[in-house]
Amino acid sequence: MKNLFTKYISVVFLVFSVMAVAACSGNTNKENASDTSKMDETEATTNTQSANTQQITAQSETANKTVDGKLNINTASGEAFRTIPNVGDKMVHEFEEYRPYVSIQQFRKEIGKYVDEDQVAEYENYIYVPIDPNNSDIETIMQIPGLDEDEANELISMRPFDNNPNPSFIGAMQPMVSGEELEIAKGYLKTEG
After folding, report:
1. Looking at beta carbons, which pairs linking 128-131 to residues 24 or more positions away fall under 8 Å?
2. Most buried among 9, 111, 112, 187, by the most CB within 10 A?
């Protein structure tokens, strides 16, 4: 009789254990479905945030470009630099390593350690070094389209100019360049801050 009672208890325990496992696995499936739904929502949110970040970055990079589409070598991001032909991670590192650039000659010297003169000149089609009207050298001022060496020297001889936003420098340059070139020049000027 004691043996029968023990077997009965064992069977009841086994039945309850099986029911408990079945009940838990049913909840686990529901939880898994809920977790999957939550993961889908999280992934969708992450994708949306990533797309928004990319859009903001693209807008920021667009805002960082001048009228002629050049990048400020001192403020452009690595992602923006990678849009320049023949620029990979190593060149991005080199561009960023020597910041802040104060002259185009400095850019040529430092980047010329890694690529030949022709490649440096090619990079200059995509970047500019900001111009400080009172301190930049002639080569840096000559980044402004339409300015020749004599005109750049004339601007240097007129120093000092009023600072930010450099209305006297722009005014002095106005008869030397076209309206479009003047707009580009405004984008090249170093701003305080």
Report:
1. 128/66, 128/70, 128/71, 128/72, 128/73, 128/104, 128/188, 129/73, 129/74, 129/101, 129/102, 129/103, 129/104, 130/72, 130/74, 130/188, 130/189, 130/190, 130/191, 131/185, 131/188, 131/189, 131/190
2. 111
Distance between CA atoms of residues 51 and 60, nearest Å = 14
Q: Does residue 33 sit in the same domain as residue 115? A: no
Assess whether 15 and 38 both reside in one domain.
yes
Give the residue among 90, 93, 96, 95 at the shortest CA–CA distance from 108: 95
Distance between CA 114 and CA 108 in Å, rounded?
A: 10
Taken in order 12, 13, 14, 15, is the CA torsion positive or negative? positive
User: Domain total for the chain?
Assistant: 2
Q: Which helix (H) or strand (E) holds 174?
A: none
End-to-end CA distance of the chain: 95
Q: Quick one: 55 and 111 in the same domain?
A: no
pTM strictly above 0.85: no
| pLDDT tens-digit map of 118-153 | 999 999 999 999 999 999 999 999 999 999 999 999
Q: Angle 89-97/104-111 helices, nearest 10 degrees? A: 130
Which of 14, 43, 64 terminates a domain? The answer is 64
Token output for 89: 């991670």
Q: Which residues of the chain have pLDDT under 70?
A: 1-64, 66, 163-166, 192-193
